[in-house]
Design a protein that fits this description.
Layout (H helix, E strand, L loop, with lengths): L2 E8 L7 E7 L6 E10 L2 H7 L9 E2 L3 E9 L11 E4 L9 H4 L17 E2 L2 E2 L1 E2 L9 E5 L3 E3 L6 H4 L5 H12 L7 E5 L3 H12 L4 E6 L2 H10 L3 E4 L5 H7 L6 E6 L4 H9 L1 E9 L13 H7 L2 E4 L7 H13 L9 E5 L4 H9 L5 E5 L1
Parallel strand pairs: 4-9, 12-13, 12-15, 13-14, 15-16, 16-17, 18-19
Antiparallel strand pairs: 1-2, 1-4, 3-5, 3-10, 3-19, 5-6, 6-11, 7-8
Helix pairs in contact: 4-5
Bound molecules: nicotinamide-adenine-dinucleotide (NAD) and zinc ion (2 copies).
């Protein structure tokens, strides 16, 4: 029997989201039904609502979630009914050319549920293949990772997207190490997680760049050693000034605009690394002096989901949280109800929150 549940849907480009009753099928082979307990509001949900990801409306939003496995389909062995799980949007296949080469974090054929959730008979496009602003959601078994249930759901869910993307941008993609200098452009949930990741990895200089002083204050709490408000100061010069004139070893763009990417590119030391974790608008183009690309050397990388492996990284990060070594509580600005997601988007746009988290 399909399940009728309340959910947050974006019906048309740029329009406010609405609460709808959707139909969620029973899990088929390789699928699990998850009772969602909490789901964070990520900027990527807003990108979907704005039509900046693709035009496959209606979208079932929400993808940064934790919940309890309620039903499992035939042949599911990864998780069992009652497990406390964090959902992920890159369930690796183990078969594609990247997985076979031993690089599963780049998997080119990640798994989602094969059955569709629907609204009035119309197929929904779940955000990042999850769709968790809903009382229940259907995902591929590999999208649910069991973690220690001692962690509160509103905190655990954040590992499922923004926090993992940011931590991983620093620790996995940027490979920040002991004594490195790091700059992070954009101090929202993703950028602050990159700052926390850089600190955890042993960086000794961490420069936070944002346009908003409130965000810079929060960035300090996550471990930024210096802050730059780039609306009134040139961030490249400011970063050079605190790194002996050299620039940073790793520059992380957690905004995804041409201007922030160029700043990250130019704020980097010779042979340094640029990591793009902010998601650019499809229309955005980038102009760089090619001689600078050559002359500065180093590496220009993108970070898909922090180059994480959910089965390896999620339980570890939850354990670090439970040991008091990773402050995830600080990311939760407020907990809200399902019908407050539209207002949470506006709070995000006004820079008032790091994460609003829907609690069900
Ligand atoms: N790569 C991934 O796997 C992945 C995963 C999750 C989110 N993201 C993306 O990461 C980005 C950040 O997400 P978020 O949830 O932290 O968003 P957010 O809106 O909470 O934070 C963005 C921050 O950037 C700042 N900012 C905006 N323009 C700026 C500029 N020109 N210079 C400096 N700072 C500027 C804002 O003040 C804000 O503090 C988004 O593009 C999101 O889609 C990527
Ligand atoms: Zn997200
Ligand atoms: Zn694969």
């Amino acid at each position: 029997m399909p399940h009728s549940v309340r959910a947050v849907v974006a019906r048309a480009k740029g329009q406010p989201v609405t609460i709808e009753t959707i139909e969620v099928p029973d899990p088929g082979p390789g699928e699990v039904l998850v009772a969602v307990k909490a789901c964070g509001v990520c900027h990527t949900d807003l990108h979907y609502r704005e039509g900046a990801i693709n035009d496959e409306f209606p979208f079932l939003l929400g993808h940064e979630a934790a919940g309890i496995v309620e039903e499992v389909g035939p042949d599911v062995t990864e998780v069992a009914v009652g497990d406390f799980v964090v959902l992920n949007w890159r369930a690796v296949c183990g078969q594609c050319r990247s997985c076979r080469r031993g690089r599963p974090w780049y998997c080119f054929a990640t798994h989602n549920a094969s059955q569709k959730m629907t609204l009035d008979g119309q197929e929904l496009s779940p955000a990042l293949g999850i769709g968790a602003f809903a009382e229940k959601t259907l995902v591929a078994a590999g999208q649910a990772t069991k973690v220690d249930s001692a962690a509160p759901a509103e905190v655990a869910g954040l590992i499922g997207c923004g926090v993992m993307a940011g931590l991983g941008a620093a620790m996995n993609t940027g490979d920040v190490g002991r004594g490195d200098s790091v700059a992070v452009f954009g101090c929202g949930g993703v950028g602050d997680a990159a700052i926390a990741g850089a600190r955890l990895a042993g960086a000794h200089t961490i420069v936070a760049v944002d346009l908003d002083d409130r965000k810079l204050e929060m960035a300090r709490e996550f471990g930024a050693t210096h802050t730059v408000n780039s609306s009134n100061e040139d961030p490249v010069e400011a970063i050079r000034a605190v790194t002996g004139g050299n620039g940073v070893d790793v520059a992380i763009d957690a905004v995804g605009l041409p201007v922030t990417y160029q700043q990250a590119f130019n704020a980097r030391d010779l042979a340094g690394t640029v990591v793009l974790v902010g998601v650019p608008n499809p229309e955005a183009t980038l102009e760089l002096q090619m001689i600078e690309v050559f002359g500065r050397g180093g590496t220009l990388k993108s970070s898909w989901y922090g180059d994480c492996l959910p089965s390896r990284d999620f339980p570890m990060l939850i354990d670090l949280y439970l040991q008091g070594r990773l402050d995830l509580d600080r990311f939760v600005s407020e907990t809200i109800a399902l019908d407050e997601v539209e207002e949470a988007f506006h709070k995000m746009e006004r820079g008032e929150v790091l994460r609003s988290v829907v609690v069900l």
